[in-house]
Design a protein that fits this description.
Elements (H helix, E strand, L loop, with lengths): L4 E3 L2 E5 L30 E8 L7 E9 L6 E6 L6 H7 L13 E7 L5 E2 L5 E8 L12 E3 L7 E10 L5 E11 L13 E9 L16 H16 L5 E4 L1 H9 L4 H12 L2 E2 L9 H6 L3 H19 L6 E4 L5 H7 L6 E4 L13 E4 L5 E6 L2 H6 L6 H18 L5 E4 L3 H4 L2 H11 L6 E3 L2 H7 L5 E2 L12 H19 L4 H12 L7 H20 L1 E2 L4 E6 L3 E10 L5 E9 L3 E3 L5 E4 L2 E11 L3 E11 L5 E11 L4 H30 L35
Parallel strand pairs: 8-9, 12-13, 12-19, 12-20, 13-14, 15-16, 16-18, 17-21, 23-30
Antiparallel strand pairs: 1-2, 2-3, 3-4, 4-8, 5-6, 5-10, 7-8, 10-11, 17-18, 22-24, 24-28, 25-27, 25-29, 26-28, 29-30
Helix pairs in contact: 2-4, 2-11, 3-6, 9-11, 13-14, 13-15, 14-15
C-alpha cells in the first residue's frame, strides 16, 4: 500500500513505481522551444516519491524525488517561477517558457548535494527532498532544498524548474513540476462551488467467442478489475462512472476461475453509476445510417440484461457516445430513453468544451451532453511517473476553477494503460478527495444534475466507418436465424449461441474479414439445420383402390429437438384434400403423417407438399406425390349398371322374337313343332324372299 502523507495540511501524492521521461507534445504557442527531454542525459533519471497536490495559505509544498545515475558530486537545484496566467501558459512552462511579471520570482531553493545530503534508498537511488513553505514563522536554521516564503504566494499555479547538475555545473536532467496554491480561509474564491470531476472508467476486452462457437477466455478484464480494486483499496472510495462492456462481463461470469474478479466488480459497481450500452462496441452512427436500428436495439437489450443480472443495476438513460455518435444516432436513441451522453473530444468541434451542453435529438427533443476533456486526459499520461501526472492534473483543475464563475464540471476518461497501474487510481482518489481541493469527484449523472447545461450545440461532422456488405449479410443471417427459431424455439441453447455470434459480428474490434466470418458461420449452420428436416423420398406414387383414402407422408427430423413446421398441400381438380393440420410438430427421428384425400375420377393426380418454416420464410423441402386411383366413382357405377341392364333387355327381346319366328309356320311334314324354323318363301327365280319387314327384330 502507498502511504499518503500530509505536508502543512495538504495531501501529498506518492508512489514507488514509474519513471520520469517523456514530456508532452509542445502546444502551438511553444513549438519553437526544444523539448526538455532532448536535453536529458539518459543515464540520469528522476522518480517521484511524493508531491503535495494542493497548498493552502500557510501550507507547505513538498516534493520528494529519487535520483538515479547522478555521478559523485552532483547537486539538485530548483527555481520557483511566476504563476502562469492560464492553461496555455501552463503548457508553455513545460518547455522552459515562463512568465516574467513578478519582481520577487524566480526564487531559488537551496541546492541539495546528492552525495552528502540525500538519503540512499534500497534500490541504490538517492532521495532528495524539496519544499516551499508559506508559514509566517520560519525557523532560524536553513535546510538544503527548503525555502520559506514568509510573504506567501497568491493562489495560482507556479512552475518549479528542477535540474540535476554534475560537479562542473553541466545539466544532466531537467524536470518541470508545479506548485498549486489554492484559496483557503477567508480568501476570495475559497467558498466557491468546487469543480465537479467525473472520471469515466471503461472496462472490457475483445470478444471471447470465436465464429465457430469456441470460447477463448481473455484475462484482460479480470486484470483490469484487479488493478482497479487494488487502487481503490489504497486510495479510498472514489465516485466515478463505470462503463463495462457487457460481452466481457458475460465472459467473466462464464469463467469459473474469474469468480473473485466478478465479485470484486460487483462490489465496485454497487455504489457507482453503471452505464449500459450495446453488447459489443458498435459504430452507432453508421448503423443508424444503414438502417440497423433494430439490431442496435438487440445489442442494447442484451447488454442491459447482462449488466442488470451480473451487477444489479444499469443506467439506460446515459449513453457512452465516444464512438461514432452522430445527429442521426441521437434521434434514434431518444425514443428508447437516452437523455444524456458522454462525447469524445472534438465531437462538438475543435474548440475545447467545458461543462454540460445541450444537443438536438430530433424535432423539439434535446439531450444533455458532456465532452471528455482531452487536456486533462493528457495530464494523466504526460510523464511516465504517476506522482507528477496526478499533480499536473491538480494544477490544470485549479486553473480551470479560476477560469469561469459558477458551477463547473469536467469529465476525464483514463486510458486502459493508465488503469493498469493501481497507484494511479490511488493517487487520483487522494487528490480529488482532499479536503483542501477546489474540486470534488462525482459521477456523470451527478455532474449533469448539478451543473446547468449550456446552450444548444451541434455535433461536428464525422466520417462513419465503412460497413461494406455487413448490413445486408447480417440482415440475411438474422432472417434465417429467426426462421430457424420459429421451428425449434427462440429459447434453445443453439439459437441463443447463434444470436450471440451475430451480435459479436458488429464489434468495432473486428476486422471486416473477422466480422464476415461470424455472419457466414450462422448462415452455414442454419442451412444445415434446415436440411436436417424433410422427406427421404421427394417423389412417390401412391395407388388408391377407393375414392377415399390416406396418402402416407414420411418426414425425417435429424435435429436433437422437436421441430415445428408448416406443411402446405396443393393438388389438381381430380383429387380433393380433406381436413389436414398445416402445423406439424416433428419429433426427432422419423415422423409418419397421413393426408386424407378423395378422388373424383380414376387415373393419376399430383399432390405437391411443401414443408416450410413456421414463419413461412424458408421452404425446407418439396415432395411430389402421384396419386393413382383405380376406384370407379358413384356416377360411373350407375352408368355402367344402366348399360348392362339395357344390354340384358335387348338380348332377351331378341331371343324371344327369334324363338317365335322359328315356331309360327311349315308343311305337313313339319308338324306343329314350335322349334321348327319358319319356311322362307322363294322368288319365282328360286331366290329367297324376305319375310314381312314388320316381323324382323331390330
Amino acid at each position: 500500500m502507498i502511504p499518503l502523507r500530509r505536508f502543512g495540511g495538504a495531501v501529498a501524492v506518492a508512489t514507488v513505481v514509474g519513471l520520469v521521461g517523456t514530456l508532452p507534445a509542445p502546444p502551438a504557442s511553444a513549438t519553437a522551444a526544444p523539448p526538455l527531454a532532448e536535453q536529458a542525459d539518459p543515464a540520469v533519471d528522476i522518480r517521484g516519491l511524493e508531491q503535495t497536490a494542493w497548498v493552502t495559505r500557510e501550507g507547505t509544498w513538498a516534493l520528494r524525488l529519487a535520483v538515479t545515475g547522478a555521478p559523485a558530486g552532483s547537486t539538485v537545484t530548483a527555481d520557483v517561477h511566476p504563476r502562469v496566467a492560464d492553461r496555455s501558459a501552463y503548457y508553455d512552462s513545460f518547455y522552459g517558457l515562463f512568465e516574467d511579471d513578478s519582481p520577487s520570482l524566480p526564487a531559488s531553493l537551496p541546492e541539495v548535494d546528492v552525495d552528502d545530503e540525500a538519503e540512499r534508498l534500497p534500490d541504490g537511488s538517492r532521495s532528495v527532498s524539496l519544499a516551499v513553505s508559506l508559514r509566517q514563522d520560519p525557523p532560524d536554521e536553513t535546510r538544503p532544498g527548503w525555502r520559506f516564503f514568509t510573504d506567501g504566494l497568491r493562489p495560482g499555479v507556479y512552475p518549479v524548474d528542477i535540474r540535476v547538475l554534475d560537479p562542473d555545473g553541466v545539466e544532466l536532467r531537467r524536470l518541470i513540476v508545479h506548485i498549486t496554491r489554492v484559496p483557503s480561509g477567508d480568501e476570495e474564491g475559497a467558498g466557491d462551488m468546487p469543480v465537479l470531476v467525473a472520471p469515466v472508467i471503461s472496462l472490457g476486452a475483445e470478444p471471447t467467442i470465436e465464429p465457430d462457437g469456441d470460447a477463448d477466455p481473455d484475462p484482460a478484464l479480470a486484470r483490469q478489475i484487479d488493478d482497479l480494486t487494488a487502487g481503490l483499496a489504497m486510495g479510498g472510495p472514489l465516485p466515478f462512472t463505470l462503463v463495462p462492456r457487457p460481452e466481457s462481463v458475460e465472459a467473466l461470469a462464464r469463467d469459473e476461475e474469474a469468480a473473485e474478479s466478478l465479485e470484486a466488480l460487483q462490489r465496485v459497481a454497487r455504489a457507482r453509476q453503471v452505464v449500459d450500452g450495446p453488447y459489443v462496441e458498435v459504430p452507432v452512427g453508421a448503423w443508424v445510417d444503414q438502417g440497423l436500428t433494430e439490431e442496435l436495439t438487440r445489442q442494447r437489450d442484451r447488454g442491459n440484461g447482462i449488466l442488470t443480472e451480473q451487477l444489479g443495476h444499469a443506467d439506460s438513460s446515459t449513453w457512452d457516445g465516444r464512438s461514432d455518435f452522430t445527429p442521426a444516432a441521437a434521434v434514434a436513441l431518444w425514443p428508447v430513453g437516452v437523455r444524456r451522453t458522454i462525447l469524445a473530444p472534438g465531437a462538438l468541434g475543435p474548440e475545447p468544451v467545458t461543462g454540460p451542453v445541450t444537443i438536438a435529438a430530433g424535432t423539439a427533443r434535446t439531450m444533455q451532453a458532456v465532452v471528455v476533456d482531452a487536456s486533462l486526459d493528457a495530464a494523466l499520461t504526460r510523464h511516465r511517473d504517476p506522482v507528477f501526472n496526478v499533480s499536473g492534473l491538480a494544477a490544470e483543475l485549479a486553473l480551470l476553477a479560476t477560469a469561469t464563475d459558477g458551477a463547473q464540471g469536467v469529465v476525464i476518461a483514463p486510458t486502459e494503460d493508465w488503469l493498469a497501474d493501481p497507484s494511479n487510481i490511488a493517487l487520483l482518489s487522494g487528490v480529488l478527495r482532499d479536503e483542501d481541493a477546489p474540486v470534488e469527484p462525482a459521477t456523470v449523472a451527478e455532474l449533469l444534475e448539478t451543473v446547468p447545461a449550456g446552450g444548444l450545440r451541434e455535433l461536428a461532422t464525422t466520417i462513419s466507418p465503412d460497413l461494406d456488405d455487413h448490413p445486408e449479410r447480417l440482415g440475411l443471417a438474422r432472417a434465417r436465424l429467426s426462421s430457424y427459431a420459429s421451428m425449434v424455439g427462440s429459447g434453445t441453447a443453439e439459437v441463443g449461441a447463434l444470436d450471440q455470434r451475430l451480435l459479436i459480428s458488429g464489434s468495432m474490434a473486428l476486422t471486416p474479414r473477422e466480422r464476415s466470418a461470424y455472419v457466414e458461420r450462422v448462415l452455414v449452420v442454419t442451412e444445415e439445420r434446415f436440411q436436417a428436416v424433410g422427406s427421404p423420398e421427394p417423389r412417390q406414387t401412391v395407388t388408391l383402390t377407393s375414392s377415399d383414402g390416406d396418402v402416407p407422408l414420411t418426414l425425417e427430423n435429424d435435429l436433437d429437438v422437436p421441430a415445428t413446421v408448416t406443411v402446405d398441400l396443393s393438388s389438381n381438380s381430380r383429387v380433393e384434400i380433406r381436413q389436414f393440420s398445416r402445423t406439424q410438430i416433428l419429433q426427432p427421428g422419423t415422423n409418419q403423417l397421413s393426408i386424407p384425400v378423395h378422388t373424383r375420377a380414376p387415373g393419376d393426380s399430383t399432390i405437391v407438399i411443401t414443408v416450410r418454416s413456421t414463419d413461412g420464410a424458408v421452404d425446407i423441402d418439396e415432395i411430389r406425390y402421384t396419386v393413382r386411383s383405380t376406384a370407379v366413382p358413384g356416377i360411373g357405377v350407375v352408368l355402367t349398371a344402366g348399360a348392362v341392364l339395357f344390354l340384358l333387355v335387348w338380348w332377351a327381346r331378341h331371343w324371344l322374337r327369334d324363338r317365335r319366328a322359328r315356331g309360327g309356320g311349315g308343311d305337313g311334314g313339319g308338324g306343329d313343332d314350335p322349334d321348327a324354323p319358319e319356311p322362307t318363301p322363294e322368288s319365282p327365280h328360286g331366290a329367297t324372299v324376305p319375310a314381312d319387314p314388320e316381323l324382323v327384330s331390330t
